[in-house]
C-alpha cells in the first residue's frame, strides 16, 4: 500500500483526501516509480476545482521525481534503479505510483530530485513558449506576467540568456525584488502600477514583441495594449480566471495582433520532443543560465495548505511536496 492524495468530487482544497492505495505491478509499457519529490502546479488546482475536468475519482498532481522500482513488458530505455522525473501525467500525489514509461525522463548527474520535480513542468512550459510558440531572438523585448512565480523565474532567466530584454510583472515589493534578481531588466508591480503604460514607457512607445500571460482574465486586455503591431499574446494559464474574447475585432483595432492558447500536451505529444525540451532545460540549469528557486516545501499530507497558498498567490518560485 502507498499513500496518495485523491479527489472524489470537484471543489476547493478541502476535497483533497489522503488515502492508502495499492500500487500494483506495472503492466505493458508502464514503470513503477518510488517518488522522492512532487512538484506543485496551477494545473493541479484547475483539475481539483473541475475547471479542467478529469474522470472522478482521480489522484492529483502532474509532476514528480524518483527512482524506478519495476518495469512492465515492452519497456525499453528505462530500467530499475534509474532516477527519473515526469510532467503532464496525472497521479503524481503519491509515495509510489505506476506511470507510462514513455513519459519518464532520465535525470542527469548534477540535478537532484527536488530540483527535477520543481522544474520539469514549469521549465518545459518555458521551453515551448520561448523556443516554439514564439522563438525569442536576441534584441527582442518580451513581457512575462507573474515573473516571480515558479514558471516565471525559470523563463525570465532563460529569456535573458537568449539576449532578450525582459519586462516582468509581479505583485508586491518582495516579488518585484525576486523577479529583478532572476533575469528581468524591468519589473512592474501590477498591484500598484499601470503595467501597459509602463511597458510603453520602457519600450519608447513601441510595445513588446510578445506577451507571455499565465494570469488570464485579469491581465488579458492590458496585455493586448502592451504589444507592438502584429505582436503575439501567448495565453497559457488562468490563475485569475478564464479568458473569453467575444469580439475578435479587438485584435484588429489594437494592431493586427495574434493570440494563441498553447499547452504542453500538444508540444510534447512525441517522446522525442519531450526529451529534446528536457535536455535543453537541464543543460540551461547545469550551465548556470537558470538558477532554480524552491520557495516552499510541504509534506504530502499538507497538500491542501499548499494549494491554498498557491491560489492566494502567496508563493514565489517552485513549491515541492515531500512524500
Question: What is the tally of helical segments?
Answer: 10
| CATH superfamily descriptor of the largest domain | Medium-chain alcohol dehydrogenases, catalytic domain
Unreliable stretches, pLDDT < 50, 5 or more residues? none
Average residue-wise pLDDT: 96
Strand content: 25-35%
How many whole angstroms does the radius of gyration measure? 20 Å
What is the helix content? 25-40%
Q: Architecture of the largest domain, CATH level 2?
A: Alpha-Beta Complex
Describe the largest sheet: 7 strands, mixed
Order of helices and strands: EEEHEEEEEHEHEHEHEHEHEHHEHE
Number of discrete domains = 2
What would the principal axes of the Cα set say about the shape?
globular
SS-derived structural category: alpha/beta
CATH fold topology of the largest domain: Quinone Oxidoreductase, Chain A, domain 1
Q: State the total count of DSSP E strands.
A: 16
Termini gap: 14 Å
Amino acid at each position: 500500500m502507498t499513500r496518495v492524495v485523491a479527489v472524489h468530487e470537484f471543489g476547493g482544497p478541502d476535497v483533497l483526501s489522503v488515502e492508502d492505495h495499492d500500487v500494483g505491478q506495472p503492466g505493458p509499457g508502464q514503470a513503477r516509480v518510488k517518488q522522492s519529490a512532487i512538484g506543485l502546479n496551477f494545473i493541479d488546482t484547475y483539475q481539483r476545482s473541475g475547471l479542467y475536468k478529469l474522470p472522478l475519482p482521480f489522484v492529483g498532481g502532474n509532476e514528480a521525481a524518483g527512482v524506478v522500482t519495476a518495469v512492465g513488458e515492452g519497456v525499453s530505455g528505462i530500467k530499475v534503479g534509474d532516477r527519473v522525473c515526469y510532467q503532464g501525467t496525472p497521479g503524481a500525489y503519491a509515495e509510489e505510483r505506476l506511470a507510462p514509461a514513455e513519459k519518464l525522463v532520465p535525470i542527469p548527474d548534477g540535478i537532484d530530485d527536488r530540483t527535477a520535480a520543481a522544474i520539469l513542468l514549469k521549465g518545459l512550459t518555458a521551453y515551448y513558449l520561448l523556443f516554439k510558440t514564439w522563438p525569442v531572438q536576441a534584441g527582442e523585448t518580451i513581457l512575462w506576467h507573474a515573473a516571480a512565480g515558479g514558471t516565471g523565474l525559470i523563463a525570465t532567466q532563460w529569456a535573458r540568456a537568449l539576449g532578450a530584454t525582459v519586462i516582468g510583472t509581479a505583485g508586491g515589493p518582495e516579488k518585484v525584488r525576486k523577479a529583478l534578481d532572476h533575469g528581468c531588466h524591468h519589473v512592474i508591480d501590477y498591484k500598484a502600477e499601470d503595467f501597459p503604460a509602463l511597458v510603453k514607457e520602457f519600450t519608447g512607445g513601441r510595445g513588446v514583441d510578445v506577451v507571455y500571460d499565465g494570469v488570464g482574465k485579469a491581465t488579458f486586455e492590458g496585455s493586448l495594449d502592451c504589444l507592438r503591431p502584429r505582436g503575439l499574446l501567448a495565453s497559457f494559464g488562468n490563475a485569475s480566471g478564464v479568458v473569453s474574447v467575444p469580439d475578435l475585432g479587438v485584435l484588429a483595432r489594437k494592431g493586427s495582433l495574434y493570440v494563441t492558447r498553447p499547452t504542453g500536451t500538444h508540444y510534447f505529444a512525441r517522446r522525442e520532443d519531450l526529451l529534446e525540451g528536457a535536455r535543453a532545460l537541464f543543460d540551461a540549469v547545469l550551465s548556470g543560465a537558470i538558477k532554480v528557486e524552491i520557495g516552499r516545501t510541504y509534506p504530502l499530507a499538507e497538500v491542501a495548505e499548499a494549494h491554498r497558498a498557491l491560489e492566494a498567490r502567496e508563493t514565489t518560485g517552485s513549491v515541492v511536496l515531500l512524500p
